[in-house]
Specification:
Layout: E1 5-8, H1 18-30, H2 38-42, H3 49-56, H4 62-80, H5 90-99, E2 103-107, H6 112-121, E3 128-132, H7 145-153, E4 162-166, H8 169-177, E5 181-185, H9 192-198, E6 202-204, H10 207-212
Parallel strand pairs: 1-2, 1-4, 2-3, 4-5, 5-6
Helix pairs in contact: 1-4, 3-4, 8-9
Length: 221
Protein backbone atom coordinates (compact mmCIF):
# COMPACT_ATOMS: atom_id res chain seq x y z
CA UNK A 1 0.00 0.00 0.00
CA UNK A 2 1.50 3.38 -0.97
CA UNK A 3 2.59 5.82 1.74
CA UNK A 4 0.29 8.85 1.89
CA UNK A 5 1.51 10.58 5.05
CA UNK A 6 4.78 10.78 6.99
CA UNK A 7 4.86 11.54 10.72
CA UNK A 8 8.12 13.26 11.63
CA UNK A 9 9.60 13.40 15.10
CA UNK A 10 11.47 16.69 15.62
CA UNK A 11 14.09 16.64 18.42
CA UNK A 12 17.08 14.60 17.31
CA UNK A 13 15.46 13.90 13.94
CA UNK A 14 14.92 17.26 12.23
CA UNK A 15 16.77 19.50 14.69
CA UNK A 16 19.99 18.95 16.64
CA UNK A 17 18.62 19.46 20.15
CA UNK A 18 19.17 16.28 22.16
CA UNK A 19 22.38 17.46 23.85
CA UNK A 20 20.65 20.68 24.89
CA UNK A 21 17.74 18.75 26.38
CA UNK A 22 20.18 16.61 28.35
CA UNK A 23 21.87 19.72 29.77
CA UNK A 24 18.51 21.29 30.63
CA UNK A 25 17.38 18.12 32.40
CA UNK A 26 20.63 17.97 34.37
CA UNK A 27 20.03 21.51 35.58
CA UNK A 28 16.40 20.77 36.39
CA UNK A 29 17.29 17.69 38.43
CA UNK A 30 20.00 19.68 40.23
CA UNK A 31 17.30 22.02 41.60
CA UNK A 32 16.14 19.13 43.82
CA UNK A 33 19.63 17.85 44.55
CA UNK A 34 19.55 14.99 42.03
CA UNK A 35 22.41 14.35 39.63
CA UNK A 36 22.51 12.00 36.65
CA UNK A 37 25.22 11.25 34.13
CA UNK A 38 24.64 12.61 30.63
CA UNK A 39 24.34 9.09 29.20
CA UNK A 40 21.70 8.12 31.73
CA UNK A 41 19.55 11.09 30.72
CA UNK A 42 20.32 10.62 27.02
CA UNK A 43 18.87 7.13 27.15
CA UNK A 44 15.53 8.64 28.22
CA UNK A 45 15.49 11.45 25.64
CA UNK A 46 12.51 11.16 23.33
CA UNK A 47 10.10 10.82 26.22
CA UNK A 48 8.09 13.68 27.66
CA UNK A 49 8.17 14.65 31.33
CA UNK A 50 5.44 12.14 32.19
CA UNK A 51 7.63 9.23 31.05
CA UNK A 52 11.19 10.53 31.54
CA UNK A 53 11.00 11.67 35.15
CA UNK A 54 9.39 8.48 36.57
CA UNK A 55 12.00 6.38 34.72
CA UNK A 56 14.76 8.13 36.68
CA UNK A 57 12.93 9.05 39.89
CA UNK A 58 10.12 6.52 40.34
CA UNK A 59 9.61 7.54 43.96
CA UNK A 60 8.48 11.13 43.42
CA UNK A 61 4.84 12.12 43.09
CA UNK A 62 3.07 13.61 40.08
CA UNK A 63 3.21 17.18 41.38
CA UNK A 64 6.99 16.96 41.79
CA UNK A 65 7.28 15.41 38.32
CA UNK A 66 5.36 18.31 36.82
CA UNK A 67 7.52 20.87 38.64
CA UNK A 68 10.65 19.23 37.25
CA UNK A 69 9.13 19.31 33.79
CA UNK A 70 8.34 23.00 34.17
CA UNK A 71 11.90 23.67 35.33
CA UNK A 72 13.32 21.78 32.36
CA UNK A 73 11.06 23.70 29.98
CA UNK A 74 12.02 27.07 31.40
CA UNK A 75 15.74 26.27 31.36
CA UNK A 76 15.59 24.86 27.84
CA UNK A 77 13.62 27.80 26.47
CA UNK A 78 15.80 30.45 28.11
CA UNK A 79 19.25 28.96 27.57
CA UNK A 80 19.14 26.44 24.76
CA UNK A 81 16.20 26.83 22.39
CA UNK A 82 17.74 29.84 20.56
CA UNK A 83 20.85 27.73 19.90
CA UNK A 84 19.07 24.77 18.30
CA UNK A 85 19.76 24.37 14.59
CA UNK A 86 18.14 22.14 11.97
CA UNK A 87 20.07 19.16 10.69
CA UNK A 88 21.32 19.41 7.11
CA UNK A 89 18.47 18.86 4.63
CA UNK A 90 15.82 18.82 7.37
CA UNK A 91 13.59 21.20 5.42
CA UNK A 92 14.51 19.49 2.16
CA UNK A 93 13.21 16.09 3.34
CA UNK A 94 9.92 17.71 4.37
CA UNK A 95 9.71 19.44 1.00
CA UNK A 96 10.46 16.21 -0.87
CA UNK A 97 7.71 14.32 0.94
CA UNK A 98 5.30 17.20 0.31
CA UNK A 99 6.26 17.42 -3.38
CA UNK A 100 5.46 13.72 -3.73
CA UNK A 101 1.88 14.45 -2.68
CA UNK A 102 2.23 12.95 0.79
CA UNK A 103 1.01 14.71 3.90
CA UNK A 104 3.74 16.05 6.20
CA UNK A 105 2.91 15.75 9.90
CA UNK A 106 5.08 16.80 12.85
CA UNK A 107 4.47 14.54 15.84
CA UNK A 108 6.62 15.36 18.87
CA UNK A 109 6.81 14.86 22.64
CA UNK A 110 7.85 18.54 22.82
CA UNK A 111 5.48 21.25 23.96
CA UNK A 112 3.27 23.06 21.45
CA UNK A 113 5.33 26.24 21.91
CA UNK A 114 8.56 24.42 21.04
CA UNK A 115 6.94 22.68 18.09
CA UNK A 116 5.70 26.02 16.72
CA UNK A 117 9.19 27.45 17.13
CA UNK A 118 10.62 24.59 15.08
CA UNK A 119 8.04 25.02 12.33
CA UNK A 120 9.29 28.61 11.99
CA UNK A 121 12.93 27.56 12.27
CA UNK A 122 12.44 25.06 9.45
CA UNK A 123 10.37 27.53 7.42
CA UNK A 124 7.89 24.68 7.07
CA UNK A 125 4.56 26.38 7.66
CA UNK A 126 3.46 25.90 4.06
CA UNK A 127 4.66 22.29 4.00
CA UNK A 128 3.29 20.86 7.25
CA UNK A 129 -0.35 19.80 7.12
CA UNK A 130 -0.82 18.75 10.77
CA UNK A 131 1.04 18.82 14.10
CA UNK A 132 0.74 16.90 17.35
CA UNK A 133 2.58 17.81 20.55
CA UNK A 134 2.72 16.78 24.20
CA UNK A 135 0.00 19.36 24.85
CA UNK A 136 -2.48 17.28 22.79
CA UNK A 137 -2.16 14.00 24.68
CA UNK A 138 -2.25 12.47 28.15
CA UNK A 139 0.89 10.35 27.63
CA UNK A 140 3.99 10.95 25.56
CA UNK A 141 6.22 8.45 23.77
CA UNK A 142 6.72 5.51 24.04
CA UNK A 143 2.96 5.49 24.70
CA UNK A 144 1.11 5.51 21.37
CA UNK A 145 -0.95 8.65 22.08
CA UNK A 146 1.01 11.16 19.97
CA UNK A 147 1.03 9.01 16.85
CA UNK A 148 -2.52 7.80 17.48
CA UNK A 149 -3.66 11.44 17.61
CA UNK A 150 -1.69 12.23 14.47
CA UNK A 151 -3.30 9.25 12.76
CA UNK A 152 -6.73 10.62 13.65
CA UNK A 153 -5.75 13.93 12.05
CA UNK A 154 -4.89 12.25 8.73
CA UNK A 155 -8.01 10.06 8.72
CA UNK A 156 -9.26 8.17 6.82
CA UNK A 157 -5.72 6.95 6.12
CA UNK A 158 -4.94 3.47 7.46
CA UNK A 159 -1.77 2.83 9.50
CA UNK A 160 -0.35 0.94 6.50
CA UNK A 161 -0.52 4.19 4.49
CA UNK A 162 1.55 6.10 7.06
CA UNK A 163 5.26 6.06 7.93
CA UNK A 164 7.07 7.43 11.01
CA UNK A 165 10.58 8.92 11.01
CA UNK A 166 12.30 9.16 14.41
CA UNK A 167 15.63 9.00 16.19
CA UNK A 168 14.77 7.13 19.40
CA UNK A 169 13.52 3.66 20.26
CA UNK A 170 10.55 5.42 21.87
CA UNK A 171 9.44 6.86 18.52
CA UNK A 172 9.61 3.44 16.94
CA UNK A 173 7.90 1.69 19.85
CA UNK A 174 5.06 4.24 19.86
CA UNK A 175 4.64 3.81 16.10
CA UNK A 176 4.57 0.03 16.40
CA UNK A 177 1.79 0.25 18.97
CA UNK A 178 -0.22 2.12 16.31
CA UNK A 179 0.71 -0.48 13.65
CA UNK A 180 2.73 2.18 11.79
CA UNK A 181 6.10 1.27 10.28
CA UNK A 182 9.00 3.46 11.39
CA UNK A 183 12.35 4.48 9.94
CA UNK A 184 15.14 5.21 12.41
CA UNK A 185 17.85 7.86 12.08
CA UNK A 186 21.09 7.73 14.05
CA UNK A 187 21.31 11.51 14.53
CA UNK A 188 19.87 11.26 18.04
CA UNK A 189 22.77 9.14 19.26
CA UNK A 190 20.97 5.85 19.89
CA UNK A 191 22.65 2.55 19.00
CA UNK A 192 21.53 0.61 15.95
CA UNK A 193 20.62 -2.35 18.13
CA UNK A 194 18.21 -0.25 20.19
CA UNK A 195 16.48 1.11 17.09
CA UNK A 196 16.29 -2.28 15.40
CA UNK A 197 15.03 -4.05 18.52
CA UNK A 198 12.31 -1.41 18.81
CA UNK A 199 11.20 -2.36 15.30
CA UNK A 200 12.79 0.08 12.83
CA UNK A 201 12.22 -1.07 9.24
CA UNK A 202 15.30 0.83 8.01
CA UNK A 203 18.15 2.91 9.44
CA UNK A 204 19.84 6.02 8.06
CA UNK A 205 22.59 8.20 9.49
CA UNK A 206 20.40 11.31 9.36
CA UNK A 207 17.76 12.99 7.21
CA UNK A 208 20.37 14.05 4.65
CA UNK A 209 21.31 10.37 4.18
CA UNK A 210 17.65 9.46 3.83
CA UNK A 211 17.11 12.21 1.27
CA UNK A 212 20.03 10.97 -0.84
CA UNK A 213 18.59 7.46 -0.78
CA UNK A 214 14.97 8.59 -0.99
CA UNK A 215 14.06 6.72 -4.18
CA UNK A 216 15.14 3.40 -2.64
CA UNK A 217 13.83 4.11 0.85
CA UNK A 218 10.58 2.93 2.46
CA UNK A 219 9.26 6.49 2.00
CA UNK A 220 9.09 5.91 -1.76
CA UNK A 221 6.77 2.93 -1.33
Amino acid sequence: MPIKAVLFDIDGTLVDSNAFHIAAWQEAFATIGKHFDQRVIHDQIGKGTDMLVPALLPEIDKEAQEKLGEAHGEIFKARFLPRVQPFADARAILARVHADGRRVVLASSASKAELDHYVDLLDAGAIVSETTSADDVERTKPAPDIFATALEKVAPLAPEEVMVLGDTPYDIEAARKCRIAAIGVRSGGFADDALIEAGAVALYDDVAHLLRDYARSPLAR
